[in-house]
Amino acid sequence: MPQQFDLVQCMKQQGTHVGKVCSRCDGKCPMCESLVHPYKLVYICDDCSYGSFANKCILCGASGGKDGEQLTDAYYCYECCMQGKDRNGCPKILNMGSTRTDMYFQKRREKT
Ligand SMILES: [Zn+2]
Ligand SMILES: [Zn+2]
Ligand SMILES: [Zn+2]
């Protein structure tokens, strides 16, 4: 699977809310998608933990809760923590699942 470094992340100042991931994204580092060496709990910004954004997987946007996915705490991998990426800001991925995003990626693919 290709690394998706093109994805736009929120990067606002982190608050006190722990980032959650769904069962499919469980164990993935939100910065590099590494599945090894989970190291440090992920915190997201206030905006990403509020209202319709609450209770959602920070990587793929799957909603949790009673009828949705089982969400677990997200962790940065060891390597990203060593590089200080855990302090870059809120790692929630913003441009997931929208039609606009799909078109954007199609355009980029045509060009290359
Ligand atoms: Zn990582
Ligand atoms: Zn955020
Ligand atoms: Zn997910």
How does the SSE layout of this entry go?
Elements: E1 17-18, E2 20-21, E3 38-41, E4 43-44, E5 72-73, E6 75-77, H1 78-82, H2 99-111
Antiparallel strand pairs: 1-4, 2-5, 3-6
Task: Characterize the structure shown.
Belongs to the PHF5 family. Pfam families: PHF5 (PF03660). InterPro entries: PHF5. The chain is of the alpha+beta class and 112 residues long. The protein has one domain (17-111). The protein is built from two helices and six strands. The protein has a two-stranded antiparallel sheet with strand order 1-4. The protein has a two-stranded antiparallel ribbon with strand order 2-5. The two termini are 18 Å apart. The relative contact order is 0.28. Residues 97-105 have low confidence and may be disordered. It binds zinc ion (ZN) (3 copies). One zinc ion binds next to strand 6 and helix 1.
Q: How many discrete structural domains?
A: 1
End-to-end separation: 18 Å
| Helix proportion | 10-25%
Number of strands: 6
Q: Give the number of helices.
A: 2
Largest sheet: 2 strands, antiparallel
What order do the SSEs take from the amino end to the carboxyl end, as H and E? EEEEEEHH
Hetero ligands: zinc ion
